[in-house]
Each structure stands twice: as structure tokens, then as C-alpha cells.
Amino acid sequence: MRRHDEVPPVTIAAVSVEDSKQRIAETTHELLLEAHEVPDPRHQELLDEVVILNAPVARSIASRYRSKGVDPDDLEQVAYLGLVKAANGYRPDASTAFLSYAVPTIRGELKRYFRDCAWTVRPPRRVQEMQGSIAAAEPELIQRLGHVPSAEETAEALGTDPAEIAEASSVRGCFSTLSLDAPGTVDGTISLLDTVADDEGGYDLVEDVHTLTPAVANLGDRDKRILELRFRNGLTQEEIGHELGVSQMQVSRLLRGILERLRAELVVRPGPTKG
User: Fold this and answer.
1) What distances in angstroms separate CA 90 from CA 35, 76, 108, 131, one per listed residue?
2) Contact 79, 59 (CB under 8 A)
3) pTM for the structure as a whole
């Protein structure tokens, strides 16, 4: 026998997902009906409740566009924006249920975001739009087929040509680029920046030598010797003076004269030869 102070066991009936969805749909419809009849600020308060109540739908749609190089928080914000637009644009007297109107609105907002804002390299608009359609259709196709759909399977589902699917799929990497600070090797010992080729100084040297050779060939032996001692051997003007038996002042004047002649030789371009 149970004592009078004992609490009787409570049985909680399981609530199915479909029942939960149905209750949300009914509550949403009631809120939209009331919002249609009242002015602001109550009108806007009711629409805000509709958005909060259906926010999981927006998040679910946004999750289908992940792994495309866009921050998940940004995707959710765009999806919420689409939901807000749907709540404001829906008319309760329409025969279409709210979600039947809201889901395409949210998807359209996400596709526009990818088309207009998320590209690092911007392909043609038709390719951008096809990329958005593929991203939206893939999760359902994977679930139905049990594997990643081929271009032919995706094309059949979207009613387009496989070549267009292949072209759009080839630009999947255009939504983001790797940071130069990202690891450049598997072990992460160097960054991606370390693997980028630098300008090769040797090419500049070859070009300089090729340009100077004809001009230097026109100099006398002593001038060539002064250039060799100064720029090849790295001697100071005083050391060159000792080497040639002249003063440092004379070396300075000689170097200045040599460099001026070379400069003049390099800027002069011979005119066309006459036949």
C-alpha cells in the first residue's frame, strides 16, 4: 500500500518529431494571423516570435552550405535574414504553408550571398548560380543515392547538362584562399609563404652584365682597371690610388668621369641604319 505522502509515478508521453513540427506550424500560423490584424509594435513582436520559433529551420538550411569556405556564423546570419524576409513577406490568406514559402526564400538569400559576396575569384554569374544549386541539392542526393552524386546524376536532378555541372564544380575553391601562414608541409615545419618562389637576383645580374658589356668594351685599359679594382675587388679610392700611383682625389675624378661616360652610353639608343 502506498503512503499518502508518496508522489505517484509520472508517465511522460513521447513526443514525435512530426508532432513537434505540427505544433510549431500551427503556432506559427496563429502568430501570423494575429500579426496580420494588428499594427506595430505588436505586429513586429509577433513576427519576431515567428522568426525565433522557426530559427532551427534556418540553421538547418545554412548547414547544407557549409564546407564551402564561408564562416558558418555568416551562413546562419544570412539564413536568419532570409527567414526575417519570409516572415515579413508572407500573407496568411495564401494557400501555401509558411515553411513552403520560407524555405525557398532562405535558400535564395544564401545563393545570393554566395553569388555576390563569397567569391575570391569571380566566375560568370551562370556558373555562380549553378554552384549554389549544386550545393543545395547535394545533401538530399547523397542521402537518397548513398554516395556522392556524379555530374550526370546531379545534372538529372537539376534538369541541366552534365557539362554545366562539371564546370560549376570546378570552381568550388573560389570561395576562399589559403592563408600564407598555413602549413606548407605535412609536419608543419614551414609555412606556405616559405614555399613561394622569390625573385631570382641572378636574372637581374645577367641582364646588367649583358647591358654593360658593350659600354665597358669602349673604355680604355686604365678605366677598365679602375672599375675592376673598385667594383670587383672592392678597394677603396685610397687603395686604388696606391695601386695606380695617383692621389685619392684623382681616383675620385676618374671614377666620376668613367661612370658618366657609361651612363651616357647606356641612355643613347642608336638610330635605324640607312641602306
Assistant:
1) 11, 21, 15, 28
2) yes
3) 0.43
